[in-house]
Amino acid sequence: SLKTLIPHTDGEKLSKAAILQQTAEYIFSLEQEKTRLLQQNTQLKRFIQEFSGSSPKRRRAEDKDEGIGSPDIWEDEKAEDLRREMIELRQQLDKERSVRMMLEEQVRSLEAHMYPEKLKVIAQQVQLQQQQEQVRLLHQEKLEREQQIRTQVSARMLLQAPPKLDPPHRDTLVV
């Protein structure tokens, strides 16, 4: 079923791994296209808002000379439009996240079904890396303890060392 969703695969013979790889690439390209379209949509909305600054609503608000402290209806409308746009974008983002999570879960389950031994190998590699990290940390702790002991022993030896006497002078004759 994934092969039918991937563009340009009519009549091609693809392995299951190739289908999964192309599916992942297709999902990535769709996400990039979606991001580009959302940015373009936002830019166009801003352009429309800027362009509509000379709209009849705006002119009527400007023609009313109510003084400096009058409320600007246009600003309220813009703020409300922005709030609506934000809500719509959040809803769209939530939908796309849920679809993406569902697709990722499907890909994982397909991979687990197709490559159960690969998952075992990966799990073993992760376990081995964790064990190696634990051994490295234990070794590092051991080295730090040894260094602390050396420092303590050196300090004790310095405290217990007999005082050094001045070397004999050359002027003095020793018989």
UniProtKB/TrEMBL annotation:
Residues 79-148 form a coiled coil. Residues 49-75 are annotated as: Disordered. InterPro entries: bHLH_dom, HLH_DNA-bd_sf, Max-like/E-box_TFs. GO terms for cellular component: nucleus. It is found in: Nucleus. Residues 1-30 form the BHLH domain. This is TFAP4 factor. It comes from Syrrhaptes paradoxus (Pallas's sandgrouse). The gene is Tfap4_1.
